[in-house]
Specification:
The protein is an alpha/beta fold. It has three domains: about 80 residues, Four Helix Bundle (Hemerythrin (Met), subunit A), CATH 1.20.120.140; about 200 residues, Rossmann fold; about 130 residues, Orthogonal Bundle (434 Repressor (Amino-terminal Domain)), CATH 1.10.260.30. The chain contains 21 helices and eight strands. The chain has an eight-stranded mixed beta sheet, sandwiched between helices.
């Protein structure tokens, strides 16, 4: 997400940092580039004007021109103002009541049903006991889809055949109370466009359910249309927040920068990827830093803590200490890392992401997948003891993984290099040094 905007701003700030002093003309020229970059990123022109006006007021003055590090000051000002434009602080869900009702609304195709299940899984991991209610009685297979997703997330789903949505919701609330579920997530029907009948039905559901949260699920790929939809729903229903889906597929990202300012609704979560764990809390400051190429290490750490198997990680550390690293260990670690998402999404959260992505491209992603296919084509004995892999075994492994023998040789060679490096690091223990320090793994 934001690839184009991040690249342009990163290049601009590199130029500004390279100057010992900045004149007012330098600042104004930089502002013009920022304005163009934002407009090209599909940020609403009204938001761009107000944002750049605020940056100009702070930048053309003593705060920057009199600073010893003017380039850094400009970056700080832009980060602060981007953060303010997106809401300033994280807007958490209001789940103070029990059961707390979360009403999911939006147009058809925005990812509403999937987002309901993603939210249920996230709340379940946070120690809540959610119940999903299937109140979309119009879209074919919507109820079946929610039941399937609920099963995948291990969250119960309430549905009622041949009943109106309002009745389903009321019965669902009774079910939640009787089963001691503390959060009820209601998946409502979407439409291809905003219409009076749809709004009347959703308004009636909101009236009888008294939801703590009314969340609009909006597709970031629709750009400014997502902002218009948010404003229309907010006028009718009084939204409490937005879940912005497919943000990882929107290289421009203008909707994320425009929605809060134009609709008054905070973005509470963003959808990244199709998997059920692909829902992240929206932190305006962290998002601003990602846009500016500063990364988002905190989100990456939080995701790793939630996703990765801590026991496996501890076991791996112990095996590294004993110099017992095998291809089986290597494969398991790559599989664990894949739980964090594609390599590009991990790089996206690292400082200097723009430069890293330019260097990595898609080659590293494809190379990793190929290496995993090759290792999976090996027997367990071969992964535990690669020295037994001769010519005939290499041919079999290549055939099984759809690769060439040279690709198998490359994986084996890189593994040998990695093992030699680990052995050298491990040798330092005798000098009173933790071998993991050099790898950045020790606490």
């Amino acid at each position: 997400m934001f690839d184009s905007l991040t690249n342009k701003l990163t290049d601009l700030f590199s130029k500004l940092r390279g100057k010992g002093t900045l004149s007012e003309a330098d600042v104004m020229a930089g502002l013009r580039e920022i304005r163009l970059a934002l407009l090209e990123a599909d940020v609403h022109y009204g938001v761009v004007k107000e944002l750049t006006d605020r940056i100009r007021q702070r930048a053309v003055g003593e705060e920057v021109l009199g600073s010893l590090t003017p380039g850094q000051q400009v970056v700080k000002i832009v980060r602060d103002e981007l953060t303010a434009t997106m809401g300033g602080e994280r807007a958490p869900l209001d789940l103070s009541r029990s059961p707390a009702v979360v009403l999911m609304v939006g147009l058809q195709g925005s990812g509403k049903t999937t987002s309901a299940a993603k939210l249920a899984l996230r709340l379940k991991k946070d120690g809540r006991k959610p119940l999903l209610v299937a109140a979309d009685t119009y879209r074919p297979a919507a109820v079946d889809q929610l039941h399937t997703l609920g099963k995948d997330a291990d969250v119960p789903v309430f549905s009622l055949a041949n009943a109106k949505p309002v009745e389903i919701v009321l019965r669902g609330l009774s079910e939640a109370e009787s089963k001691l579920r503390d959060v009820v997530i209601v998946d409502t029907a979407g439409r291809l466009q905003i219409d009076e009948a749809m709004m009347a039905e959703v308004s009636e559901i909101a009236r009888v359910a008294s939801p703590s949260e009314i969340l609009l699920v909006a597709d970031a790929m629709t750009g400014q249309e997502a902002v218009n939809i948010a404003a229309a729903f907010h006028d009718q229903l009084g939204l409490t927040g937005v879940i912005l889906t497919k943000l990882d597929g929107d290289a421009r990202g203008g909707a994320a920068l425009s929605i809060r300012h134009l609709s008054g609704c905070p973005i509470k979560f963003v959808g990244t990827g199709e998997k059920l764990d692909g829902l992240e809390p929206f932190h305006p400051e962290r998002m601003a830093e990602r846009i500016l190429g500063m990364g988002d290490v905190l989100t990456l750490i939080e995701r790793a803590e939630q996703t990765l198997d801590q026991d496996k990680a501890a076991d791996m550390v112990e095996r590294l200490r004993k110099n017992q690293f095998t291809l089986q260990d290597f494969l398991e670690q790559l599989e664990e890392m894949q739980k964090l998402g594609p390599l590009s999404s991990i790089i996206d959260k690292l400082p200097g992401a723009a430069k890293l992505k330019r260097a990595a491209g898609t080659e590293n992603e494809n190379e990793t997948k190929q290496a995993m296919a090759i290792m999976r084509s090996m027997t367990l004995e071969e992964r535990l003891n690669p020295s037994i892999i001769g010519g005939s075994r290499k041919k079999r492994i290549a055939r099984g993984s759809g690769t060439q023998v040279r690709d198998v040789n490359r994986v084996l060679a890189r593994f040998s290099e990695a093992k030699r490096a680990l052995k050298m690091i491990g040798g330092r223990r005798n000098k009173g040094k933790n071998p993991l320090d050099a790898m950045g793994l020790s606490s």
